[in-house]
Design brief:
The chain is α/β, with parallel strands linked by helices and 399 residues long. It is 48% helix and 18% strand. Helix 10 packs antiparallel against helix 11. The radius of gyration is 29 Å and the shape is elongated.
Length: 399
């Protein structure tokens, strides 16, 4: 291949039917020439800032681009301080920026068809769905590494919940649960601790999830907020016996109203508010007694549910307002699941587990970029926690 680009020669080659793009395309020498000149200019600019440094030959590597392959001579400096920006070290493909664009569009929930249209509009290059899938598959090793990464020793608050999707398995689509764990670190910042996939939501699998957290370095959780899944508190305490478990009040209310006639729901809800908005556990229990006196005959299943789960429903009453606000509901993790649904709204189902997990993983990376600030009134909250959980949190604080 001619290493210098000659416009007249290129025009003659095109007239003769030569390929413009692809391997040995007529534009390849131009891309090489421009890239080579840009690298030389980068080095000259770098050397102008280092008086005792100078050029030190070149190293060759083969570059791939949309217009074909070519050998590129990368200039070097004697001090070894030159870091090319146009072509990074170990980069061998000129379209890396296109791959990054594909991943960015994918992380925003765009379908493969939408991504293909965007890329063609921006760069004039057509990508098949198979090619886009191969690009996004490069996320999978990062996902696996993220799933196995070490975690912090203690998390003051953790929320656990599941969201369900349909995934193709053995030729048919089946419903599966994605288990999400959201924690708050000692600095008050949120972190997704992990994503786990299972056939269905159940306490037995949650036990495996909690064991994995423990194996990855989590030694203590102060308070865990969960929905009303049967056996959930026992699963948590089997791995973290000192953890206090708060059942989500919002879940409990929703489940209660399912069994209350529509004509009574407004009045029943008014009476429920007196329970969960009470100033103390004792006051709440008085209101629960009144609720049973008024509605126990008509809705015994609902009252029994509150009585059976009361120990874990009432955990938040022992804490001041700032902590109550954080733990009484799982809304904080449900907001993460709402983001998941935005990402997956164009997908009725997924062809395999990795296609779902890699999309959610990319969504998490985007979300966590915004989690730069600690939770509201965090300094006060930590001070309160150090009193309520004396000896369990102070050893981890850097003071």
């Amino acid at each position: 291949m001619n290493t210098q680009f000659d416009l007249n020669e290129a025009l003659e080659q095109i007239k003769a039917g030569a390929k413009i793009e692809g391997k040995d395309g007529v534009l390849a020498p131009l891309i090489k020439q421009l890239t080579q000149a840009a690298l030389e200019a980068e080095l000259e600019s770098h050397l102008s800032t280092e008086i005792l440094n100078r050029k030190n030959g070149k190293s060759s590597k083969t570059m791939k681009s949309s217009v074909g392959e070519f050998d590129l001579d990368v200039p070097r400096d004697r001090n070894g301080s030159f870091e090319p920006q146009l072509i990074k070290k170990h980069q061998t493909h000129m379209s890396d920026h296109i791959e990054q664009k594909i991943l960015s569009l994918y992380a925003l929930g765009n379908s493969y068809s939408q991504i293909s249209e965007h890329i063609e509009e921006l760069y004039g290059v057509s990508f098949s769905k198979a090619t886009i899938s191969a690009v996004t598959d490069k996320v999978i090793p990062l996902l696996k590494e993220w799933q196995q990464r070490p975690l912090e020793s203690i998390y003051p608050f953790v929320w656990l919940d599941a969201i369900h999707y349909r995934i193709k398995e053995n030729g048919k689509y089946v419903a599966k649960a994605i288990y999400t764990i959201l924690g708050v670190k000692l600095d008050g910042r949120k972190e997704i601790l992990g994503l786990y996939l299972s056939e269905s939501e159940g306490a037995n699998f949650w036990l495996q999830v909690l064991t994995d957290l423990n194996n990855r370095g989590v030694e203590d959780i102060l308070i865990a907020s969960v929905d009303g899944l049967k056996g959930f508190p026992e699963a948590i305490n089997a791995i973290f016996p000192k953890t206090e478990v708060q059942l989500c009040i919002v879940h409990q209310i929703r489940n209660s109203l399912k069994y209350v006639a529509s004509k009574n729901q407004k009045e029943f809800m008014k009476d429920l508010k007196l329970i969960y908005q009470a100033i103390s556990k004792e006051a709440a229990e008085l209101e629960l007694d009144r609720l049973e006196e008024k509605w126990g005959t008509k809705y015994p299943i609902v009252i029994q549910s509150w009585r059976t789960k009361w120990e874990n429903l009432s955990t938040y009453f022992k804490y001041p307002e700032d902590i109550r606000r954080i733990i009484y509901t799982t809304n904080i993790i449900e907001s993460v699941h709402r983001q998941f649904r935005k990402l997956t709204k164009t997908k009725g189902a997924f062809p395999n587990e990795n296609s779902l997990l890699k999309l959610l993983f990319m969504g998490i990376q985007n979300a966590q970029k915004k989690w730069t600030m600690p939770m509201r009134n965090w300094s006060l909250t930590v001070s309160q926690l150090s009193i309520f959980f004396e000896g369990r949190i102070n050893t981890y604080l850097d003071i």
